[in-house]
Amino acid sequence: MRFTISGKQIDVGDALSTHVETELGDTVVKYSQRPTEATITFSRDAHQFLCDAVVHLSTGLIVQARGAANEVYASFEACREKMDKQLRRYKRRLKDHHKDRTEPVEFGEAGLYVLSADEDVWEAQESGLEPIIIAEMESRVPTLSVGDAVMQMELAGAPLLVFRNEKHGGVNVVHRREDGNVGWIDPRGNG
């Protein structure tokens, strides 16, 4: 597995890097046979150290976790424990995912736009007020089953996931509802 360990205004020494590679490597390999890349970033927020970890699996799934503590090693351990808990929860599904999927998850390209939140600066068009685009980026939309999309959303710690449904190719959304359940939006034009 390829590691990228960095710090935002923090010097990440060799001892911390070695500790992260050993511990995170053991955690991820225990649940997933084929991790490919891990990015770990340490930063500070007032008196606390933060550790953000993103691990890419060879199947295209991404696992994310964040830890915070008063010491840098403790922030990493909190992050690693969260990732371990996520991977343990999905251990069976991850192993089944490896068996059923011989090819990595397919991704389609999509535009991602950031719109101005200030309605006072929106442009007046003939059809009404149009929001101002303040940033344009490329995004990737995975092709997944609904179950895999929910798993990916939770592994990534995201509030929602836009994906292309494997069964019919339509764009779908899964999201975490306020009541704690998961919502699934499937806007197929059924008449």
From TrEMBL:
Pfam families: Ribosom_S30AE_C, Ribosomal_S30AE. Residues 130-183 form the Sigma 54 modulation/S30EA ribosomal protein C-terminal domain. GO terms for cellular component: cytosolic small ribosomal subunit. Its main location: cytoplasm. The keyword Cytoplasm applies. It is found in: Cytoplasm. One of its GO terms (molecular function) is ribosomal small subunit binding. Gene3D superfamilies: Ribosome hibernation promotion factor-like (3.30.160.100), Sigma 54 modulation/S30EA ribosomal protein, C-terminal domain (3.30.505.50). Keywords: Cytoplasm, Translation regulation. InterPro entries: HPF/YfiA_ribosome-assoc (IPR050574), HPF_long/plastid (IPR034694), RHF-like (IPR036567), RHF/RaiA (IPR003489), Ribosom_S30AE_C (IPR032528), Ribosom_S30AE_C_sf (IPR038416). It comes from the Bacteria. One of its GO terms (biological process) is negative regulation of translational elongation. PANTHER family: 30S RIBOSOMAL PROTEIN. Associates exclusively with 100S ribosomes, which are dimers of 70S ribosomes. Belongs to the HPF/YfiA ribosome-associated protein family. Long HPF subfamily. Required for dimerization of active 70S ribosomes into 100S ribosomes in stationary phase; 100S ribosomes are translationally inactive and sometimes present during exponential growth. This is Ribosome hibernation promoting factor. It comes from Paracoccus onubensis.
